Amino acid sequence: MATLTKPNIKVKRQVISEEEATSEVAATTKQNVHKKTVYDTKDLNLWYGDTHALKDINLSIYEKEVTAIIGPSGCGKSTYLKTLNRMVELVPSVKTSGVITYKDKSILDKSFKVEDLRTKVGMVFQKPNPFPKSIYENIAYGPKIHGIRNKKILDEIVEKSLRGASIWDEVKDRLKENAYGLSGGQQQRICIARCLAIEPDVILMDEPTSALDPKSTLRVEELIQELKKDYSIVIVTHNMQQAARISDRTAFFLNGEVVEYDETDKIFTNPSDNRTEDYISGRFG
Amino acid sequence: MKYVDTNQVQKNMNSRLIKNNILKSVFFLATIFGLIVLAVLIFRVIMQGASWINMDFLTNKLSTSPDRAGIMGAILGTFWLMLVVIPVTLILGVGTAIYLELYAKKGRFQGFIQTNIANLAGVPSIVYGILGMTIFVRALDFGNVVLAGGLTMSLLVLPIIIVASQESIRSVPQHLSEASYGMGATKWQTVKNIILPAALPGILTGSILSLSRAIGETAPLVVIGIPALLIPFPGGIMDKFTVLPMQIYYWTIDSSLVEEYANLAAATIIILLVLLFLLNATAIFIRNKFQKRF
């Protein structure tokens, strides 16, 4: 057995080193070539009633990167995330000003269809929230509401999405069972798969691992690294190590303002603002 | 110096324990009182009526002769009445609940409606009878037929169904509908696919319980004027009708003339109680079966 596995490990190492090499190339080109943005936020202000929750946010989200948003509780990071797919409007007293463009379309305009936006921008929530339906129905929900009725196509979407969320092998034999029978970590990956099923461009994640144990957290983090190849990901997290591990860029929010937004390496090794340094070194928050 | 005097505590101990036991008995008696009254009632009714229940009693027409009198007419009347009440209350009641919970902007108008619905649930049933008499029997000129009675009963139970459905809709976790909206579902798709299926057990339970109230209710129909005379079996919603509780009412009144009518009333009560018991059991079954879904 040992003799069999050893060469495999070597192969894997080679693959990894190749990946590292390509990512180094990517890193060098990143500085030279101007990367495409998916979201551009200009002077965004947001109020919950009289509470000024977001103040003059200016931020660009880049394509096929993981953008982490960190900051203490109540700093507006989740609010900002929910503004990106206008879920924030479910709170009745919300008012906004400023402009957010998604691929050059102004999404805060009243004429812009939220349903359209949310088809291209998927969301994964803090608490795993599968529907009280079968695993299959959970994944097929999105395609179905967008009018796909063909059983064969639905089957393919379900398999592709579950594979994409690397949970296919665990659930392929019990697709008809209720998703509530799965563990928390599996439920969260089901929610990610459900989100992949509508083939979005962007995935918003609101503290996706905060309700999970360390092992499940690791699996979701690995998954995020995988997804990055095809999707642009914005993740809100309380966990600074997580932001450092998985993100390419990090925005630090404090009291509704963006204190600092830069490449993750720079934020965590050489932040330019004192408040960022205080926060990441654990002096507050 | 100690503040708590051990001797004094010992002295008080007995009276404290006695008081404790007395109150326990008081609460127990309060509970038992209702049960005893109910048991006596059921016992008396069964003693009086059980021997009168047979196939003829269930299938015969009304008759002045106690031996030949049956309650088929009242059973059919109750059936037709429910055929009006169920769709009307479900459509209006659940529709109102969905609007108030999911569509209406939270504000003064919504609060005003909410308060009024709560108040309507407390209005005495005879007032609904007068309302039904004025609107359905006279103004719309239906006469005292199933449709008029059914609509009046619907008004009576509507507030109960609305409140029960609202509570059921409210108890569907917000994160489920958020997940649906997050995938680009419209409001109606979310309501239809996520919120209503999750709220359905609660809505059904509330509806069944309020239907059993409608089945047992008498006062509004007395006001509308249900004939106590011998009428043919109702065959549709525009026919004159009687219902089980009305039958009980008339037989009880007339038992001063013909003694056996009291037995017939008791027998009808048993049938009505069995019917209500079955309905409530269904409601409890539905509630338990679907309770732990999220």
Description:
The complex is a heterodimer of chains A (285) and B (294). Chain A has 285 residues and is α/β, with parallel strands linked by helices. Chain A has a single domain (36-106, 114-280), classed as P-loop containing nucleotide triphosphate hydrolases (Rossmann fold), CATH 3.40.50. Chain A is built from 11 helices and 10 strands. Chain A has helices spanning 2-32, 77-84, 114-120, 135-145, 151-164, 168-171, 184-196, 214-227, 240-246, 264-269, 274-280; strands at residues 37-48, 51-62, 66-70, 94-102, 105-106, 121-124, 202-206, 232-236, 249-254, 257-263. In chain A, the strands form 2 sheets. Chain A has a 6-stranded mixed β-sheet, sandwiched between helices. In chain A, strands 2-1-4-5 form a 4-stranded antiparallel β-sheet, with helices on one face. In chain A, strand 1 (37-48) and strand 2 form a beta hairpin. In chain A, helix 4 (135-145) runs parallel beside helix 7 and helix 5 crosses helix 7. In chain A, 41% of the residues are buried. Residues 1-32 of chain A have low confidence and may be disordered. Chain B has 2 domains: 6-52; 57-290, MetI-like fold (Orthogonal Bundle). Chain B has helices spanning 6-49, 55-59, 72-103, 108-120, 125-139, 146-170, 174-182, 187-216, 219-224, 244-254, 260-290. The model of chain B has no long low-confidence stretch (mean pLDDT 87). Chain B: Belongs to the binding-protein-dependent transport system permease family. CysTW subfamily. Chain B: The chain crosses the membrane at residues 21-47, 71-100, 120-139, 145-164, 218-237, 264-286.
